[in-house]
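Morning, I've got a small favour to ask if you have a moment. I owe you a coffee for this, so here goes:
>
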Amino acid sequence: MQNRLPKISPVIGLFTEIVPGGPLALARGGMGQRSQPRRLAVDSSHAVYFQREVRKHWSCGPPPGLHLVWTPKYRRSVLVGDVAVRLRELIAEIAAEHKWTLIELAVQPDHVHAFVRTLPSDQPHMVVRALKGRTSRLLRQEFPSLRRRLPTLWTRSYFCATAGNVSAATIQRYIEAQKGV
């Protein structure tokens, strides 16, 4: 069998690839541990070769949402004015870069609340590390007053809780309520 690109029938238009042992493979009679792609005849003139399944939906539900809270060193009220605006911009940039969804963000003078939907492969401590690390470095570079007032911008501690779909709305309402405080 020659290794060439599959022809796609105009009737089907798009096709999905099948992973050995995946749900589509099992529905088609199973592929077990076969390394050769299966051929599915569409009509007499076209054939589609399936090799891998493209996952469009998560098998175990949506990616987890993380409710994160962290504070500046000594809980000082330094997140005001231009610092707060720039912090919001930086967090949005970091989230977009890592393909995370920033559901809600509340920057208070003495703490930050963030509700972030991450990929299942992202570990919560790495999410916090990315957010706190880069924001600390860039804010301290852009605002020298932060370097004079604090030895480091953030404390070493943080709060992190995972949230499923049921409690996501509750957390979002809580963070929105914190904005008004």
